[in-house]
Design goal:
The chain has three domains: about 10-20 and about 170-305, no CATH class; about 35-130, no CATH class; about 135-160 and about 310-380, no CATH class. Helix content is about 25%, strand content about 20%. It has eight helices and 18 strands. Strands 3-4-8-7-6-5 form a six-stranded antiparallel beta sheet, with helices on both faces. It has a six-stranded mixed beta sheet with strand order 9-10-12-11-13-14. Helix 3 (about 205-215) packs across helix 8. The two termini are about 20 Å apart. Mean pLDDT is about 75; it is low at about 1-30, about 40-50, about 80-85 and about 100-110.
Length: about 400
């Protein structure tokens, strides 16, 4: 979905603080395949199912005609039909592609595609269906307020699929450098290559980026190491963090197709602060110096603010609230220690361990459930589109 453009120098969206290190024009698109966007009111699939991020690619036709074709197709396709023909389409014939289920088994998101042809002219579209009403992060969407009063919670404490995702054994294909994996669209179809770097707090962001990558046709390289910032103050962390830092730089230098880097880290990781500096200033300086060493092929740095933590007492509270049939997210909310802007995890006073029926915290180390982060995907996409309008 489109979001209005802002005029501030920094952007605070969802649980994100997004910073641009440099800006450059997007690569030129081939004239034969032109990306087009449908207007917001067109982003609806048959049967009243909400959708977001409908993107059209047109070959040998204008975006105006491509949009007209897709509007007609989405109206006439209907549930269960894979082909349709209407007077408006004339000689156009359309077919719908297979919808793909979610990576972790929850029936909450589906991808779809369609292709319409008329002679040598072709229009294709991809979409992602929205999650159930007010599910997960949608319950805190400031643009479309809703209320989810469920007394249930997913995933439960023994969910092995979310555990596998955070352990790196699910949702990503291994094989780049140590601790790295790839996700998103297959290489021949990638329109942009991005990298996600940082410590273990980058793992859960893979789930949100996976949705963005499918919609934007991105190839994502995830290069993470537990306990290691991507920072010039690596000597203050674990012994192998300097090697991790050098591996990341080497990878980016050898992959000039990567033009965007996403990064985050555990804000609570201790560092050895030199005398005369504060913890915050020392960390910020280390990050900024590291970003300055990125190869010139990296045009954009997107910094994701670290997310909420939990405590053992909160997990005990959740178990008790579920047993009692009360709303666990409200009964077990944790007081927010800092006066930060409201986001998809907290309001001005409290942070919620269950939002829209989805458990937020995976553990007490600041790792979040991939299930919740998948529901955050549409809102990460919305934030990124605001930024991309300025790139």
């Amino acid at each position: 979905m489109s979001a209005p453009r802002g005029t501030r120098a920094a952007w605070f969206v969802a649980a994100l603080i997004v910073v641009m290190a440099a800006a450059a024009p997007s690569p030129a698109r081939a004239a034969a395949a032109r990306p087009c966007r449908l207007a917001l009111h067109d982003e609806q699939l048959p049967g009243g199912t909400a959708a977001y991020a409908v993107t059209v690619s047109a070959q040998r036709v204008s975006c105006a005609l491509a949009t007209r074709v897709m509007r007609s197709f989405h109206r006439c396709r209907g549930d269960g039909h894979t082909r349709c023909h209407r007077r408006l389409l004339g000689a156009w014939h359309c077919g719908a592609g297979k919808r793909l289920g979610p990576p972790l088994g929850q029936p909450i998101v589906y991808f779809g595609s369609a292709s319409c042809r008329s002679g040598r002219r072709r229009v294709t579209t991809t979409w992602q269906e929205n999650f159930p009403l007010c599910y997960g992060a949608a319950a805190r969407d400031p643009l479309h307020p809703c209320r989810n009063a469920t007394t249930t919670m997913y995933p439960d404490f023994d969910d092995v699929e979310d555990q596998a995702f955070l352990n790196g054994s699910s949702g990503c294909d291994p094989g780049i450098v140590g601790g790295a994996c790839t996700s998103g669209v297959d290489e021949p179809h990638a329109r942009r290559h991005v990298a996600l770097i940082g410590d273990s707090h980058t793992f859960h962001w893979r789930a949100a980026l996976a949705l963005v990558a499918q919609v934007q046709s991105w190839r994502v390289y995830s290069i993470a190491a537990g306990g290691c910032f991507f920072s010039k103050v690596t000597g203050a962390f674990l012994p192998d963090c300097e090697s991790y830092y050098n591996d990341v730089l080497a990878f980016l230098r050898s992959h000039p197709e990567v033009d965007t880097v996403f990064t985050t880290s555990n804000a609570d990781t201790p560092v050895a602060v030199p005398e005369g500096q504060t913890n915050a200033s020392f960390k910020i300086d280390g990050f900024e110096r590291a970003w300055a060493e990125l190869p010139p092929t990296v045009k954009h740095v997107v910094v994701l603010r670290d997310t909420t933590v939990s405590t053992p007492e909160r997990f005990d509270c959740l178990a008790a609230a579920l047993a009692a049939g009360s709303r666990p997210g409200v009964a077990c909310a944790l007081e927010r220690p800092l006066a930060l802007r409201e986001d998809f995890f907290c309001d001005s006073q409290l942070c919620y361990p269950v939002i829209g029926g989805v458990r937020v915290n995976q553990d007490t180390f600041g790792h979040l459930t991939p299930t919740y982060m998948r529901t955050l995907g549409p809102y990460l996409l919305r934030a990124l589109r605001r930024l991309q309008a300025r790139w």
